[in-house]
Amino acid sequence: MTTALRNRKGFTLIEVLVAIAILTISMLAILEAVVITMEHNLNNVSRDESVRIAEAKMNELRNTTFASLVSGAGTVTRNFRNLTRTFTVQWTVNNLSANSIAIVVMVTWTHKGVQHTHSVTSMVSTDV
After folding, report:
1. Which residues are registered as beta bridge partners of 39?
2. I need a surface site. Which of 19, 104, 106, 111 has the fewest CB within 10 A?
3. Of 101, 108, 92, 103, residue with least CA distance to 53
4. Its pTM surpasses 0.85
5. Residues 62-87: what's their mean pLDDT?
6. Which residues sit opposite 110 in a β-bridge?
């Protein structure tokens, strides 16, 4: 003689499957948010590195003798976060007057097919 239990407590298979589906969808949404956050973080690190490169080049140009300042270009390769990124550095020297010039340093890099630019401008004058 077997007696059937009428008051069973616990979860049915359907309830467990629905709970797993809800948890899976939630975890996928959180994973997508993490990926987006990492992408933005990498963009910010690249931007910070471009600022450092532009400042270093501007300091180098400001320490160059006035008569020797000429426009030019070059590349800088930096490694960060297991990524190698190449930055293009271009500097332009524009005469403002006989004894003052404007220097513009532009640093460009490409991330996921989009070109980004950071520029720094400074004026340099000779001692008269």
Report:
1. none
2. 19
3. 108
4. no
5. 91
6. 115
Backbone angles phi, psi at 5, to 5 degrees: -85, 120
Q: Considering the chain, what percentage of its residues have pLDDT values greater than 90?
A: 66
Residue type (1 letter), 80: F
- Cα dist. 127→57, 93, 122, 124 in Å? 22, 18, 16, 10
Backbone dihedral region of 37: left (phi > 0), alpha (psi from -120 to 50 degrees) or beta? alpha
Q: What is the pLDDT of residue 87?
A: 97
Task: Reply yes or no on whether the pLDDT at 11 is more than 80.
Answer: no
Q: What are phi and psi of 86, to 5 degrees?
A: -105, 125
CATH architecture of 13-125: 2-Layer Sandwich (3.30)
What DSSP letter does each residue of 104-122 carry, written as one string? Answer: EEEEEEEETTEEEEEEEEE
Question: Position of tokens 């400042």?
Answer: 55
DSSP string, 72-94: EEEEEEEEETTEEEEEEEEEEEE
Q: How many CB atoms lie within 10 A of CB 83?
A: 11
> Which structure tokens are listed for 52?
């450092």
Q: 57 is written with which tokens?
A: 């080049």
